[in-house]
Amino acid sequence: MAENLAPTVEALEETFGWEDPFRDPAVGEFGLVNAVFAVGDTFVEIVSPRQPGTTAGRYLQHRGGDSGYMAIFQVPDVLEARTRVSGAGVRTVWTSDHPDIAGTHLHPKDVPGAIVSLDWAEPPESWRWAGPAWTGGAPPHPSGGIRGLAVEVKDPPEAARRWAMVLGVDAATAGGVAEVRLPAAGQVVRFHPAAGPGEGITEVRIATSALAGRSGPITVAGVRFVIEQWEAPQ
Questions:
Q1: pTM metric for this prediction
Q2: Which of the listed CATH numbers 3.40.50.1100, 3.10.180.10, 1.10.1200.10, 2.60.120.260 matches domain 5-228?
């Protein structure tokens, strides 16, 4: 979440060589403008408020500036995922259903640290939210993508437990850090005590062949981007 979209988009393009982000007019429903970059077979989306009085604007004020805001996870069965979270008493704040994609935003007071969304796509390699090029299939793209997130929360073990529950996996502790691992995707979410105002995503770890030779960490819009060597999930 960035207060100003254009300079953030420019910073990401200049830093990582990403090009041609998709601008989705549908986010106007939330009073936002956005830009979605494909990063391997995953995506980095920047959103900014376009009018006063939005939830996004209040979030920026609460965090004291730009910050990581949302984590979207693709699930194989959205109905099963919705049943699981509903059964655990987790509220949803928004849903959208289409023949080829569905989204489910969860209440941040029930799953702390970010807006967590459980989304589904058919075919699985498609992602309509990223625009026409990703509708009905996937265009040619570099290997890799997002491999990890760091999230600052008030209670890391409890946050890890809640995220693990909604994702249908187990929470764990590694090196004293609470985390949630997604083995099939080769991804991990780590939880740290909140050091500043509120809670939010503070780091994104990326591994992709398109970023060979680039270094990190590099901070853009309040988020630290760390580059890792690409290794295919086992």
A1: 0.93
A2: 3.10.180.10
